[in-house]
From TrEMBL:
<protein>
    <recommendedName>
        <fullName>HNH endonuclease</fullName>
    </recommendedName>
</protein>
Length: 87
């Protein structure tokens, strides 16, 4: 397995937004972390802006329910560790 990267389910830049502060406590904002491989992390940020991640895709389940993420995770799981997709 490749080294994993820390994906903040609520992006750190969004922590200061009033809407996010009202919805999630400081502890919740800090604790929502998902460890993912680099290709998956890049894919997530390629397809979703930080506001969408913070407001709608702030759990593992919500993120994996998105077809673009689910399909990519399924696809990359068939490749050997260290595989780096193009583009």
């Amino acid at each position: 397995m490749d080294a994993l990267t820390r994906h903040h389910l609520i992006p750190r830049k969004q922590h200061r937004r009033k809407r996010i502060r009202r919805r999630f406590s400081r502890a919740e904002r800090a604790a929502r972390i998902l460890w993912v491989c680099r290709p998956c992390h890049d894919h997530i940020h390629k397809h979703f802006d930080e506001q969408t991640l913070a407001e709608r895709l702030n759990t593992r389940e919500a993120l994996l329910a998105e077809p673009v993420v689910h399909d990519f995770v399924t696809w990359i799981a068939r490749h050997p560790p260290g595989f780096k997709p193009r583009g």
